[in-house]
Design brief:
Blueprint lengths: L2 E9 L6 H10 L3 E10 L10 E3 L2 H13 L8 E4 L5 H17 L6 E4 L4 E2 L3 E2 L3 H11 L5 E2 L3 H7 L25 E8 L5 E8 L2 E8 L8 H14 L4 H18 L37
Length: 291
């Protein structure tokens, strides 16, 4: 069992942010320490939403209490998601550094899910928060999980809605240096499919998935949680990509016709799911996944 600190949004109804990250990790047998950056009635994509922002100073007090009780020791993984302000990004960065400083001899895997925006709507958080995620969190991260829009924005591409993208937005992968990148919802030559692409030194693998129009919110959060779970369990980047893709597809299949992800369908062992087929583009370098 791993102990994972997760910092993201939380909803009273639905399965997004911590409301899917926490049960997904718990279903796999891991302990989760969950700090909510906002508490909402539901995903803002619905007609009516109400809630509140949990200020970074209050999150800091909560983290202090957790530390005083000894619960920030033996952390195996960190996951950050929705961070609504630059101050929240600062808190997240300080939390990562603080956890790692408490256990310098222990590898603490940090996955940054850069929740910035989406295609074709564009950026939907404060631009100052987006810039802070790029400048402060990416240098600390072992992995990032941007979607198509977020990958382009982080790579410095022109992401103004309506502008022309490259023939294959996966070209943006080579424009980012540092952490392993697992880009989600990337376009495929077949418009009925999308691709999840893992890119790291010596590794470039892809998982092709069927696009599911009208899928419930929260798939990115679920994917990030399952990806991190596989890595802290010792899986390679290749294996983690296959496991997370299979897990999300399994839950989406069970959620057909629902307006929220079916939490009851969360896998209790990623290895129990059929292995998701991976492809290695001929143009990429072959090699073993970074472990």
């Amino acid at each position: 069992m791993a102990r994972i600190l997760a910092i993201s949004s939380q909803v009273a109804r639905g399965a997004v942010g911590l409301s899917i990250i926490t049960p997904a990790l718990q279903a796999l047998g891991h302990e989760v320490i969950a700090l909510p950056t906002v508490i909402l009635s539901n995903h803002p994509g619905h007609q009516t939403t109400s809630g509140l922002v949990v200020e970074p100073v209050e999150l800091g007090k909560m983290l202090d209490a957790l530390a005083a009780n000894g619960w920030l020791d033996n952390i195996d993984g960190l996951l950050t998601g929705y961070l609504p302000s630059a101050a929240h990004v600062d808190f997240a960065a300080q939390s990562v550094s603080r956890v790692r400083a408490r256990q310098p001899a222990r590898q603490v895997m940090y996955l940054c899910d850069p929740v910035l925006g989406d295609h074709p709507k564009g950026l939907y958080i404060d631009p100052r928060a987006a810039g802070a995620i790029r400048d402060r969190l990416l240098p600390l991260a072992d992995m990032i999980t941007p979607n198509r829009f977020e990958l382009g924005w982080l790579a410095g591409a022109s992401m103004v809605p309506g502008t022309v993208e490259p023939a294959d937005p996966a070209a943006w992968l080579g424009m980012l240096q540092g952490p392993a990148i697992v880009a989600t919802s990337m376009p495929d030559a077949d418009p009925r499919h999308l691709r999840n692409i893992a890119n790291a030194p010596g590794t470039r693998v892809e998982a092709r998935v069927r696009e599911r129009p009208g899928a419930p919110h929260g798939t990115g959060d679920l994917f990030a949680a399952l990806l991190l779970a596989s890595r802290v369990e010792g899986g390679s980047l290749d294996r983690a990509l296959a496991a997370a893709t299979a897990g999300v597809d399994h839950v989406l299949a069970a959620s057909s016709g629902c307006d929220a992800l079916a939490v009851s369908a969360l896998p209790h062992a990623l290895a129990a799911l059929p292995a998701w087929p991976l492809e290695r583009p001929s143009s990429s370098a072959n090699g073993e996944a970074r472990s």
